[in-house]
Structures are given as C-alpha cells and as structure tokens.
Amino acid sequence: MARLTPYADALGITVEAADGDAPVMRLDFSDGVQGRPGVLHGGAISGLLETAGYALLRGALVQEGRAAAMKPINLTVQFLASGKPHPTFAKARIVKLGRRTANLSVEAWQDDPSRPIASAVMNVMVVEPE
Amino acid sequence: MPPPEPADTAFDPVRAAPFLTARSHNGWLGMLYREHGADWVELELPWRSDLVGEDDRAVLASGPIVSLMDMASGLAIWTRMGSFQPIATLDLRVDYTRAAAPRASVFGRATCYRITRSAAFVHGVAHDGDPADPVARMQGVFMTIKVNPGILPGG
User: What is the ipTM of this complex?
Assistant: First the structure.
C-alpha cells in the first residue's frame, strides 16, 4: 500500500483494511475534525472520501503498470446524515478507468456500511508521463 | 425549538467569523476572515506545508478547499439571512479549474444567491490572489429548516 498524502496524514486518516482490491480508510473523531460540537465536519468527511478515491485509483494504475499522475477535475459530495463522534470509514469504487480520465464513486459510513453518511463522485485526470 | 432571536442581533460576519473559524476543524486548518458583502463572504486558508495533496507539489490538497468553501458558504448564508440558524450541507460540488500557485494561500469566496423556506443555494470561487482567475468553482445546497441540529447532516 502506497503511503497517504501529507494532508491525509495530518488529518489522521489511516488504512483500516483492504476489502478485496479497495482499501478501507479510517478517520477517528477528534477536535481537529469536529464541525458543530459533537459533529464530524463535512470538510473532513470530504477529505476522507477523496483520500479513499485517490488511494484506490493509485493502486489500480500501479496494477496496470502505469506511472500516471492524478489531477483532480471535480468532486461532488452528498451529505446524507450527520457524522457522529465515532470512527468513520470510506471505500471507493472505480466506475471507469480510461486512458485520460477516471470516474470514481465513494461512500463513507460509521457503524453500518449499508447506511452511508456521505457519498461522492470524483472525476480525475490521469496524466501519463511524456 | 430555540427562542426567536431579538431583531437587534443581526448576524455580523466580521464578529462571527473569528469565533466560528477559531476552533475545531476550521481552527485546525487556520481559516481567517477576509471580507464580505450583503450576500457573500471571503475567507483565507493560509499556506501550510502539511496540507499538501502530493509530496512533489507545493499545492494545498482539495480536502481543505472543500472545508474552506463549506465555511464560507455557511457565513454567506447567515449574512444574507441576517441571522444565525442551524444549517446543514446537503450537496457540495467543486470543479478544479487550474492548479494553485506553489505555496499560495487559497481564498474562498462564497455567495448565497437564493434562499427558500427550506434550502439555501450558494456558488463561489477559490482563488490564489485574483478572484477573476479562480483555481476552483463551487456550487452547493444547504438545508435551512429549523430542527434539532443533532439530526442534520453535514457539519
């Protein structure tokens, strides 16, 4: 497993488990990720979702033998439920990995993976070295 | 239900923003108030080397940009409403239009362009010095219904 970004390390994101090919990311609750008192900040949830997406895509590119750089195109996050002061997990799915772009779907949950607290769609530019 | 606010306590982002950005996640990121208008607020996220998204590029990760735009959006909504009410982010989209300059602070400017009984609509830009040349564009929808904030999504 490649190491996470400096931002992910600073936020406190860790790799919980590899579920099949997709890594499950974990973010423990702390004051640094708190929004309203006792509630996980939506920006921290977004950071967790993106980290899960990039980690999965990086692994898939490595598996295909591609040394491509990943550049964000856009990110849409839906907030489905309030994040409680519990550990939060996220796992991504590659919807499409093409020659120039990748499309990812990511979900975050707390106690029950079938009841996500947020979901995201990410489009990522995949830039092969010249 | 919280008691209705007295009419003379209109929301003032100049006074409220330092309080709201001083603690928890926003405080950890180090957000600062910059300026505002009748329906918009601009915050600054100063450069910090441990918030980069890639080891080899001195550019802030996109997670902190989402947090910045989320807070600027909330402040813009309360500024346009003229009062502080519980709101929750429902949907937030960020398009990254170009890479920020290395080691640049990023400024998040959000405008609340429409408020209905139950929703507030925002758009905005993130820029690294010139709002006319943004590094990202943002579009978001927030819920404005007054219920127990503990059951609202977002943060």
Answer: 0.93
